[in-house]
Amino acid sequence: MRGNEIILKGEADELNDLDRIFAELMILLNRNQAISDADVETVISLVRGHAEDATHRDGGGPRPVVLYTKTSAIRPKTDGQEEYFAAIEKNDIVFVIGPAGTGKTYLAVAIAVAYLRDRRVERIILARPAVEAGESLGFLPGDLREKVDPYLRPLYDALHDMMPSDKLKRYLETGVVEIVPLAYMRGRTLNSAFVILDEAQNTTPSQMKMLLTRLGIYSKAIITGDITQIDLPSTTTSGLVQIREILTGIEGIRFVYLSDKDVVRHRLVRDIIKAYDAYDHQ
To answer: How many whole angstroms separate alpha carbon 178 and alpha carbon 162?
Structure first.
């Protein structure tokens, strides 16, 4: 009898895998209007290998796929991240506030790349404040990219994970993808663009207002930040902290808050965040 139970369990697992493969392929077909042999192989490999234990909700079904890459499927891994993804679909401006390791930036870039691929936008604009450089930025040696690259490197890293190198290089050269310091956004109007402002806790109120008023028609924006890691002078108000009091309740704008429960880095990152929170509230 025990042997029959094992066989039945194995058959059930196989059926579950087939259901998951079919479900993922349907999602991919609906998104891309086509499925290649490589897509089928990728989905089968992901499902059969059980590569992502966190891709299923406690209640059952798979979490939605944000973007397929050559090696994996990028999708929300926690309830908070899934709320974040859903908020972008329903709103044009989303503020995502949470501690380090919760995937704020990585998921934002994945969503932007998916929108560009699906031609829902024509370009991606990634911006970060170069707080440490301050007014001395112009006196640093090299061209603009050499001066600000250290501050923008996390955005480059995320894009390299999601695009072939030759395509990314071409997009950067043609301006389809721009990675720029926040200060260089002034005076622009961004139509049909997916805008990401990263490390927004280090913006001043005037910088935040400037960025938000750059948005043109058919554009979306994700503003990410961790209000526990503000690097501004103590006398300067964070634009991300202030904006919560100004824009809350406006239709089309959503605030999403991630917590230590959404940390997807090393397991100790969550413990470190909890320890710091406990220390700060002593």
So the answer is: 15
Tokens standing for residue 227: 């209000």
Considering only the C-alpha atoms of the chain, give the largest distance between any 2 of them, rounded to a whole number of Å. 78
CA 151 – CA 127 distance, rounded (Å): 10
Sequence-ordered list of residues with C-beta below 8 angstroms from that of 68, at least 6 positions apart, any chain? 28, 39, 42, 74
CA distance 232 to 130: 11
- Determine the Cα–Cα distance for residues 154 and 128; give it in Å rounded to an integer: 10
CA distances to 93, 121, 194, 253 from 216, in Å: 12, 12, 10, 15
Interval 50-89: pLDDT, tens:
444 455 566 566 777 788 776 677 888 888 899 999 999 9
**In this structure, what token pair is assigned to residue 98?**
């949470």
- Phi, then psi, of 255 in degrees rounded to 5: -105, 125
Rounded CA-CA distance 281/7 in Å is 54
- 240-265 tens-digit pLDDT: 999 999 998 899 999 999 988 887 76
First to last CA, the chain: 58
> Two tokens at 28?
């991919």
8 Å CB contact between 196 and 108: yes
Tell me, what amino acid is at 183? A
